[in-house]
């Protein structure tokens, strides 16, 4: 019998929390822009009894994604794909955020959608940030959902973006729309694909934000949110495990917020003051 394979792109904290919950007895492919990060995660997982291999992959590069698909299928049947790679507004300029978070993530869904195994599942980590800006015009939604990947970055409204937070928000909104678009294709193979939009989850990426130029705003937002605290990678892992399990098979093409009530409060609660700035 062929081995089942779990693929993780972005071997960071959230990705690791998810993949270890769903990969007992499977081969885990850890793909990351930083080989050192992938190797560190591999060591942690191997010390806990998992079988892993690592591959360097820049999610912003089409050729790296194709190579990752080839590599993963050479290891067995791809049952799970988790995309937890991404760059935040404090980590990169506009072009790089759009290249990785918007374009690369779209290519990844399309390419793995061609090989995902029957009964398989994909999880794309989006963000609460994508739920923060008002509804886009329907033409923009349609364009983000359905434009062929190689034309995505040419969309005129994306070319007008000048600040990194907007680039991140558009990217994360695009992830959710693209998941809706891909659900039919993944469904035809007997697989599901969903996104998860976390609020602030304590990880190295979040710590960059919590020490970056917007740190005061983030801390106030956490304290004033309904949960009154940040989240943990394990909480996101628990949700993903459910979506990918046999109990989650009727859930396809949707996005689930896990943010301690922050988005609800942003629109209609104590965090409405943020509307003036975000
Ligand atoms: N931590 C949060 O508060 C939070 C909130 C909402 C959404 N997210 C999203 O969760 C995802 C994972 O973030 P995390 O908090 O676990 O961060 P993390 O820093 O722990 O992990 C991110 C990993 O992605 C890798 N990576 C970055 N760019 C890459 C690229 N171009 N190609 C391949 N790998 C790349 C990094 O090397 C790192 O190992 C991101 O998409 C992020 O936008 C995080």
Supply the key terms.
single chain; 278 residues; alpha/beta; Rossmann fold; seven-stranded parallel beta sheet; 7 strands; 48% helix; globular; binds nicotinamide-adenine-dinucleotide
Question: What does this protein structure show overall?
Answer:
- The structure is a single chain.
- The protein has 278 residues and is an alpha/beta fold.
- The protein has a single domain (4-202, 232-262), classed as 3-Layer(aba) Sandwich (Rossmann fold), CATH 3.40.50.720.
- It has twelve helices and seven strands.
- It has helices at residues 13-22, 35-47, 62-75, 94-112, 138-146, 149-152, 156-159, 164-188, 204-210, 215-224, 233-244, 262-268; strands at residues 4-9, 27-32, 51-56, 77-83, 121-125, 192-198, 255-258.
- It has a seven-stranded parallel β-sheet, sandwiched between helices.
- Strand 2 (27-32), helix 2 and strand 3 (51-56) form a beta-alpha-beta unit.
- Helix 1 packs parallel to helix 11, helix 4 (94-112) runs parallel beside helix 8 (164-188) and helix 5 (138-146) crosses helix 8 (164-188).
- The longest helix has 25 residues, at 164-188.
- The radius of gyration is 18 Å and the shape is globular.
- The model has no long low-confidence stretch (mean pLDDT 96).
- Bound molecules: nicotinamide-adenine-dinucleotide.
């Amino acid at each position: 019998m062929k081995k089942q394979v779990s693929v993780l792109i972005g071997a960071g904290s959230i990705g690791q929390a998810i993949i270890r919950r769903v990969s007992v007895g499977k081969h885990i492919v850890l793909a990351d822009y930083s080989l050192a990060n992938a190797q560190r995660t591999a060591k942690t997982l191997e010390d806990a009894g998992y079988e892993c291999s690592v591959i360097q992959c820049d999610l912003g590069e089409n050729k790296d994604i194709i190579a990752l698909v080839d590599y993963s299928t050479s290891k067995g049947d791809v049952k799970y794909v988790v995309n937890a790679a991404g760059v935040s507004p404090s980590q990169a300029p506009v072009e790089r955020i759009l290249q990785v978070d918007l374009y690369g993530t779209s290519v990844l869904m399309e390419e793995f959608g061609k090989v995902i195994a029957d009964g398989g599942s994909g999880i794309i980590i989006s963000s609460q940030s994508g739920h923060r800006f008002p509804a886009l015009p329907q033409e923009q939604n349609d364009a983000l959902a359905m434009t062929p990947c190689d034309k995505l970055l040419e969309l005129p409204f994306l070319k007008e973006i000048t600040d990194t937070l907007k680039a991140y928000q558009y990217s994360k909104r695009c992830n959710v729309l693209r998941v809706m678009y891909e659900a039919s294709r993944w469904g035809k193979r007997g697989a599901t694909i969903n996104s998860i939009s976390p609020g602030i989850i304590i990880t190295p990426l979040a710590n960059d934000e919590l020490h970056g130029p917007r740190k005061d705003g983030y801390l106030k937002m956490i304290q004033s949110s309904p949960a009154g605290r940040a989240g943990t990678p394990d909480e996101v892992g628990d949700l993903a495990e459910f979506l990918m399990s046999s109990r989650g098979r009727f859930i396809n093409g949707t996005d689930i917020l896990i943010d301690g009530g922050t988005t609800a409060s942003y629109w209609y609660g104590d965090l409405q003051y943020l509307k003036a700035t975000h």
